Amino acid sequence: MGGDKNSIMHPYLKVTIPLVVPLLILLAPLSAFPIEGITIVQQRVIAIFFLAALCWVFEPIPIYATSVVIIVLQLLLVSNKGILLFRLDEGQAHFGELLPYNEIMATFASPIIMLFLGGFFLAMAATKYRLDINLARVLLKPFGENPKHVMLGLMLITGIFSMFMSNTATTVMMLSILTPVIAVFGPQDPGKTAFALCIPVAANIGGIGTPIGTPPNAIALKYLTGDNLITFGEWMTFGIPFVAIMMTLAWLLINALFKSEQTKIKINIKSRFLKTPKAIVVYLTFALTIVLWLMGSTHGMNAYTVAMIPVALFSITGIITKEDLKKISWDVLWLVSGGIALGLALDKTGLAQLVVNSIPFAQFSPYMVLFGATLLCLLMANFMSHTATANLLMPIMAALGTSMTSLAPLGGEMTLILTVTFAASLGMSLPISTPPNALAHATGHVQSHQMARVGMVLGVVGVLLSFVMVWILNIAGYIR
Amino acid sequence: MCKRKLEPLIERYFNHQERHLMVKAGSLLIKQDGYNGRLYYVLSGELAGFYSEDDNRPVPVFSASEGAFIGVHSFFSGTWTASSTVVAQTDAELAWIERHTSVVESEEYGSLSAQFMPVIVNELSRRQRRATREALAKERALQELYTAEQMTTLGQLAAGLAHELNNAISVVNSKSKRLQTVIMELLAESHPKMSLFFEQGLIQGQQISSSEARKRGKLFEKSYNLPKDLARKLARAMPAGNDKANVNEPWLKQPEQTIRFWQIGRDLHDLRLAAHHTIGIVKSVKQLGRTDINLDEALNINDSVIQALALLQSDLRRVSVQFDPEELPVFTGSQTELIQVWVNILKNACDAMVDTESPEIDIHTRYNKNRILVTIANNGPEIDEVTRRQIFQPNFTTKKCGLSFGLGLGLSIVKRIVAAYGGNVAVKSDSERTIFRIKLPAGDEHGQA
Amino acid sequence: MDKLNIICVDDQQEVLSAVLQDLQPLAQWLNIEECESADEVLELIEELDAEGEMVAVIISDHVMPGKTGVELLTEIASDHRFIQTRKVLLTGQATHTDTINAINKAGIDHYFEKPWQAEQLIECVRTLVTKYIFDRGLDYTHYQIHLDQNVVFSQLR
User: Fold this and answer.
1) Partner-chain contact B402 C17, CB within 8 Å
2) Which of A100, A170, B100, B166 has the lowest CB atom count within 10 Å?
3) More confident residue, B44 or A362
4) Residue A125 domain flag
C-alpha cells in the first residue's frame, strides 16, 4: 500500500510532519488552545491523536507500528504509571486526570480483539481443512458456465467468505482460483477486467455483513454499547440485506462497464471435502459458532464470549497448532488495539466531550453533520487503511453522537456510527484503498482508472444507500 | 527458341550435300588432342564425347544428338585441336564446315565467328553447367561417404559395448542361477516348510498390481486383524484369486517368516528376469552393430520384428504395441539389415508420437502372392504432403531440437535396404494414422533356403 | 501424530519392489505406498488427501505408459493441496529436455539416476520429509529421532 500517495510527498516530509506537528502541540501553552478548560493530559492526548492521524495518513512507519506507538506513548505520557517527570503536577486542576495504566494495556486484549481472534481461528481452521475452497467449489456449481452468472457466483461466494474471513485472505483465495480462468480470455477481452475487479469489490462489500467481517465493524461495535447495543445477529439482519443490494448493484455495474467476450467459462477446482475426525470438528465448530452468534444473547453469551469457543476447541484438538499460532495476523489485532487505546484516551480524559462541546455543533444542521462526517470517512478510507480511518473517526463520532441532540430524531449516535462505519468499508476506488484492491491491481488485468470508476460509483451509491438503510431502521423503530 | 534462331544459320552453312557425312555406329569421328579443322552439325543419330587423362579409362563428357554442334571449341578457339574424343553411338548423319568454308553474306551478318556467336555462347554455357553439376555430385558423394563412416563407427561402438555388457550379464545370469539352486538346497535342509513360499516367489514373482495390493491389504488388515504394513506385504505375496481364510492358512501361521522367504524367492525371480531381459537386448544390439552382414541367412521376418521391438523396449514403454504376425515363409537375407529396417521405422514412429495422447503402434505381417507384406501403423500426427515426399531422402530430418537429434538417415537406410532385396516401401498418412508398408519378395527371387 | 506417506511410482514391478525394499528402513515411521502408473498416483493422493493424510514425498520414474513422470510431477506441483509435497525423479531414460522440464515445470527436489544407491535414496527421502514437516508446520518432535538433524537445526535456528 501507499506507493501512489507517498510519491507525491518528499520522503523527508513524510517523517518530519508527523514528528513536528505533535511536538508543537505538546510544547504549546495551554492558552494556545481555543478550548475552554483544557488540561495538560488532554493536551498530550491531542498530540498523540495528531501523531496517530499523521502517521496513519503518511505511513512513515507501518500502520500497526503506529498503534503500538500510541499505546506506548499513552503509557509514558498519560498513564498513572508513566515517567515521573511527566506527572509532577498530578493532582492539580489544570493537569487533569491520568489514565490507569492497566486499562491502556488491556486494549491489547479487549473483547473486540478476542472477537477477531475467534474469527481468525475459524478462518485459519477453515483454510487448513479446505472448508473454504470446498464450499467455493460446491457453491459455484449452480452458476453454470455463462460468464455473467459465474461472476455473480464468484462475487456472492467472495462476499460470504469475507464476512467471516479477512477480506484480504478471501481475495487471495478467490484470485488464485480465478487465475487459470482469466488466462483463457482473449488479450483484449474486458471480461478479464470484470473478473479481476469483481473479487476485491465483493470482498470489500462482503466485509460489511458481519461484525467480524472487517475491523471497522468491530471498532464500531465497541462504541455501540448500553442503549445502543447491537448484537452479532442484529448486525447481520441489516448488514446482509445491505450487502446483497450493494453486491447486485456492483454486479450490474461491472457487467455493464466490462462486457465479457467469452461466451463460456469453466472453473475447475480440484478438491474434496475432508472427512477426517479433525475436519468434522472444524465443520461442526464453524457451524456452532455462527449459530451461537446469530442467536444473539438468548443463550446468555455475547459475541465476544462465543468467539472464544473456537479458540479453545481448535487448540485442544490440535487443529490449530503452535506453528499455526505464529501465522495469526497480529498486526491487524494490534492495529485495532491502538485505535481502541486512542478512543479510550479521548473518552476517559474527557477530551472528546470537551471538543464536541466547544464546537457549536448544535447550530449545525444534523443532516449536514451526518453527510459531512460520512463523506469525510469515505474520503479518508479511499486513501488510507479502513481500520485506521475507523480508529481515528469512531471515538469522535461516538462523542458527537451522544452530545448532539439535534441528531436524535435521525437516530442519534447509532445512525452516525453505522453510516460512518459503512462508509469506511466503501472506500475502494484506488489500488491503495484496501489490500484486496492492491492484489487485484497487481494481477495486471485492472487499470487504476477502471477501479476508480467502479469504486467511486459504488462508494457514493453505498453511502446514500446506508442513509436509506438507517432511515428505514429508524422508521421501523429499531434505532432508538 | 534457340533452335529457331539458329535455323537460318543451319540453312546457310549446313545445307550443302557435298559437306554431308555418314558415320557408322562405333566409328571414331574426332580423336582427343588430334587435329580437327571442322565444325560438325548433327543431322541425325547419336554421338558421345569422351575425355581421358594420362591413359586412364575415358570418362564420358557429353552426348550429342540431332541439332547439336560438335567441335565448337577447336573450331572457334583457333587451336584446331580436339578437346575430347567423339565416337558415334548410332549410325549418324552429320553436316560440316571447314576453316576455309567461305563466309556467306558477310556484309549483312558479319564474320563467320560473329554469325556463329550464339552457337559459341551456347556451348560455353553448356560446359559451365556441366562443371557445376559435377561439383555438386562430388560434394554429395563425399557427404554420403562421411555419413556412412559415421554409421559404421556407431555400429562398431555399439558392438564393443554389447560385448562388454554381454560378459557382465552372463556372469549375473549364471551366478543367479547357481544361487537359486544353492538356496533351494539350503532351504530344503533347514526350513523345509518355508521352501514352498520361496518357490512361490521364485516361480511366479509378484503377480498382483500395486492398486490390487492396496485394496487387498486393506481387506486383510480388517479380516485378519493384521498391522497395515504386514497386511500389505501379505497382499503382495499371496497367490491371487483366493482370499478365503482356509486357503491362506499356511501363510498366516507365521506371516513375517513366510513373507521373508517369499521375498527372497521373488527377488531371485526378478533378478533372473532382468538378466534374461538384458541378454536379449545385448544380443539385438550386437546384431545391429555387426559389420559382417551375411546376406543369405534363412530367417523369419516375424522374429526380426520381435527383435527390433525388444531393442526399442524403452522407447516403446509408453506406447501400446499390437503385433499381429502371420505364418511367413523363410526369407533369405540379413537379419541385421531387416532389424535395422524395423528399428528405424519404429523409432521414428515413437519420436513422432511424443505428444500423442495414447500412442499406439500396430504391426501386421502378411504373406500373399509370393510377397511378404509388413505394415507398421501408428496414430501419431499426420505427415504432411511435402514431408512425405522427402521422407526417404537421405539427410532429411524433422528432428532438430535438443539432444535427440536425427541424422536424417533412418528412412533412407530403410529404403536402400528394402530396395536391395527387390522390395519397396511406401508411406500413407492422414490425421488418424500413419502407415508404412514394406513389400518384400519371398521365395522365388531369393530362392528357398 | 500424523502419518506421512511416501509414494513410489514405476511401471516395472521389479524396479518398484526394489525401490520399496531399499526404503524399508523408513517404514517404521513413514507409510510407503507403491503405484504402477501416474494415474494410480493421482487416484491414490486424492484418496489419501480425503482421509486427511499427508503426502510428503513422491518418487517417480520418468518413462511410463500414459503420463510420464515429469507430467505427473508437474500436475502435482500445480495442485494447491500438494504444494509442499517433495518430488524426486528416479530415472534412467530422461532426455536433456525432460530434465529441464522436470526442474523448471515440476520443480523436482532431487534427481536420481538408475541404478540408484539405497543409502543415498534413504538419506534423500529423510531430508525431504524433514523439510516437508517444517513446511507444513507439523510438530517435528514426534519424529525427531528419524529426521535429518542438519535440516532440523537449520530450521530451528
Assistant:
1) no
2) B100
3) B44
4) yes
